[in-house]
Structures are given as structure tokens and as C-alpha cells.
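User: Design a sequence. Structure:
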């Protein structure tokens, strides 16, 4: 068995697809009526369908998991983030951990936690 995809819940699937394309270069692989598969195995699921499937509320900014990306040009990424999404909500701006890795954490437009760090 292998892990095939990671699915996140979003309110506006087109806005989210644009966000992940603008910042991370993820492209559309499959558009299936409220469910989009992007390159690198990220799946966007519209909240209204997810709520129907589960019968439960969606908790934004739950901080229970994060999407982790690596970027060697972290300063360039921060510039791109600030240019394209100046109102992004930060968890922490660019910082350096005690082990030397530089990271930034923020939420996507739907409150999904993202971390971008330099390669270890």
C-alpha cells in the first residue's frame, strides 16, 4: 500500500487552485466537480461536499496538520508570497530554528497551515 494523495478542504476551489499554482507551481491534473487533483498529489475538496460526506463542521485553522514545502531560495519565496498575497495570515514570519533551518509558516485562504523551509 502507498499514500496516494493528501486532501485539504477549501471554500473556493478556483481561488485555492490559483493560490497553490501562484506560490508553489502546482498545476491541475484532474477537475472532478468540486474535487481537484493538483500535481505533487495535493487534492482540493470543496467544503460543501466534504461537509455532506462527513456530516460535521469544518474547523479552519485547526493546526492539526500542515503542508510542508522546501525551498532553497527562501527569501525569494517570501518576496513572492508578499507580492501575490500581501494579506496572508502568518503563524510566524521567516525565522531560523536552532538547528539552522529557516522557515516561514502561514495559512492558505481557507486556514490550512503551510510551512516552507530550507532543505535540511
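Assistant: Done.
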Amino acid at each position: 500500500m502507498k499514500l496516494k494523495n493528501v486532501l485539504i478542504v477549501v471554500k473556493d476551489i478556483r481561488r485555492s487552485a490559483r493560490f497553490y499554482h501562484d506560490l508553489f507551481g502546482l498545476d491541475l491534473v484532474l477537475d472532478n466537480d468540486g474535487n481537484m487533483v493538483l500535481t505533487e498529489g495535493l487534492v482540493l475538496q470543496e467544503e460543501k461536499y466534504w461537509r455532506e460526506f462527513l456530516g460535521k463542521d469544518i474547523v479552519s485553522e485547526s493546526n492539526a496538520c500542515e503542508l510542508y514545502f522546501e525551498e532553497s531560495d527562501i527569501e525569494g519565496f517570501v518576496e513572492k508570497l508578499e507580492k501575490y498575497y500581501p494579506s496572508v495570515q502568518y503563524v510566524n514570519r521567516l525565522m531560523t530554528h536552532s538547528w539552522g533551518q529557516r522557515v516561514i509558516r502561514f495559512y492558505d485562504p481557507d486556514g490550512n497551515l503551510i510551512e516552507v523551509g530550507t532543505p535540511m
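The domain at 6-117 is CATH 3.10.180.10 (2,3-Dihydroxybiphenyl 1,2-Dioxygenase; domain 1). Residues 13-24 form the longest helix (12 residues).
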